[in-house]
Design brief:
It contains 4 helices and 2 strands. It is mainly alpha-helical. The protein has a single domain, classed as Orthogonal Bundle (Arc Repressor Mutant, subunit A), CATH 1.10.10. Strands 1-2 form a two-stranded antiparallel sheet. It is globular. Bound molecules: zinc ion (ZN).
Length: 103
């Protein structure tokens, strides 16, 4: 495997782990239909850092990609939360439409 490919896979794995942390901290949610990460309307990135640090401390396999690198974890959580802060899924619109339908 090439160095670049390995680096991209590593970054993708870190991004996944950061999303797991944010979801565990209820900073992000997941679409009920397809599991896409979406904004939970909370925006408390500090809470996500706390949850991530606790997961690293208890060696949670979902954050194994960070090893003991807490700085890397917080940096990745920060960027993921910023990226997905206003993320929605098309299914949300479907839910709202279904709820507001008056026929
Ligand atoms: Zn969806």
């Amino acid at each position: 495997m090439s160095y670049v490919k390995r680096l991209l896979e590593q970054q993708e794995a870190e991004r996944h782990a950061a999303i797991e942390i944010a979801v565990a901290a209820n900073v992000l949610a997941r679409c009920e239909v397809d599991d896409d990460p979406i904004d939970a309307g909370v925006n408390d990135v500090e809470e996500a850092y706390k949850v991530g640090n606790a997961m690293i401390s208890r060696e949670d396999p979902r954050v194994a990609v960070f090893g003991k690198d807490r700085r890397k974890m917080t940096d990745t959580v920060k960027s993921v939360v910023e990226e997905l802060r206003y993320a929605t899924c098309s299914h949300e619109a479907d839910f709202e439409r279904a709820m507001s339908r008056d026929d």
